[in-house]
Amino acid sequence: MAVDTALVWFRRDLRLHDNPTLDVAAGAGELLSVYCFDPREYGTVRFGGSDSFPFQKTGSHRARFRRESVADLRDSLREHDSDLLVAHEKPEDAIPALAEAVDADAVYFQTLPTSEESALERLVKTRLRERDVAAHSFWTHTLYHLDDLPTPYTQIDDTFTPFRKQVESSSAVREPLAVPSLPPSPSPSDSLDDIDALDDLDGGFDALPTLADLGLDDRSVDDRGVLPFAGGESAALDRLETYVWEHDRLREYKQTRNGLLGADYSSKLSPWLNEGCLSPRYVKVEVDRYESERVANDSTYWLLFELAWRDFFQFQFQKHGDRFFSRGGIRNPDIDWQEDRDALGRWAAGETGIPFVDANMRELNRTGFMSNRGRQNVASFLANNLRVDWRWGAAYFETQLVDYDPCSNYGNWAYIAGVGNDSRDRYFNVVKQAKKYDSQAEYVKHWLPELSALPADRAHEPWTLSPEEQAKYGVHLGVDYPQPMVDVEASYEKLR
Ligand SMILES: Cc1cc2nc3c(=O)[nH]c(=O)nc-3n(C[C@H](O)[C@H](O)[C@H](O)COP(=O)(O)OP(=O)(O)OC[C@H]3O[C@@H](n4cnc5c(N)ncnc54)[C@H](O)[C@@H]3O)c2cc1C
Q: What residue stretches are annotated with the Photolyase/cryptochrome alpha/beta domain (predicted)?
């Protein structure tokens, strides 16, 4: 039944297209939207309890992207004669206070599978109930809807292939929703300062916090990155249009997706998918249209295959909950994880002395992005060569990645560390991988210019250079570039 006044609390669904939450709320007589920059998301958190190291939950790259995404959403809502209030407050304080202030009958928001997000939802719901305000949540971020799985999520297969085959044969992807027409807002945002219920909130509702407000550095964009990754639904739709239609790269995605350099070896849609600027169902519609208007082949299917991986991890976390964040993961094999902070520090800084690992980590640090091939290799190096607690690496990614998602990140890390959804050995020999996927060493030289004079066959193994060769190429190991911290093959053999 339509309500008089609705409040939409935007979370990781920063879009107007195919947004079921907004679509339902738009049936109200009046509608107000709000986004909260939750201060806890930007602070330093003690990972793994009081005896472990503190890390920053959201680093500058993702905070910048998110800020731009919220600004774009606000612009779009204004173009639709609506508006977005932006608070730098805890949602459990801001949302109920605002609901009371505008006399909302109901609050609508996205539900997410991981425990911090769902605990927050429960708290907001409780506080709304205390004020007699209804709360409605919606599952909106996957290709297949949670309710459309062939089995209850508690019974989905823990291995990807059977899961994928089941959804492909027995589930349908729902049609994306159009942008709804929006009812007027209940009260102009500039009068909110006068409302008593909001007195306890110091941040107000009218300003996008700067990165400095969030306690972060405003880093300059490194133009060596694969894409500038502008945040927001508008940029997301532009990227999809460019990759699929203008540059016409979908037809060769399966062959290029293991690339390392350039904008178009893969779709680069992940940051927009994860902040909810882009609906995966809309991506599917575009893939279907491309298949009927241009070409249907392995590559066009493969993009949907990868979106099924994304879904798989969302449903896995829904099923297994916090077990995924434990050191033993969902399988708890007998592995002697090390708490070696020096090794973690060298890995994180891109100072391991293994060029393929270092180039990828420096790309991550400078841009917030790393290719899938790179992620697999640096994760394997930390977990399977150094045997450092894999969660430390995952937590480092959590800070840095522009496209961080808890399920995709911890799920993939657990997988590679051998504690997740696959019992097979997921070891990657980083030197062999480097020679295969960066045969001309263009990628390592792009991020490690100090190695640029080396011939391609030596750039992946600078430790093989004699003193004379080091002098000839101007690369003095231990001075211009680090000595390798381990022997790649021996370190893995030792741990088997
Ligand atoms: C250790 C590790 C950590 C990762 N952390 C994240 C993360 O925090 N967030 C994230 O979105 N992806 C993560 N991935 C998956 C993958 O690396 C990225 O999704 C991909 O590199 C993003 O680039 P793209 O959009 O060009 O991908 P494309 O190759 O164009 O794929 C299209 C989309 O499919 C999805 N996808 C592709 N591969 C995977 C995968 N293995 N798992 C889940 N979804 C996938 C993504 O949404 C991606 O945007 C991680 C992978 C590893 C190995």
A: 4-143
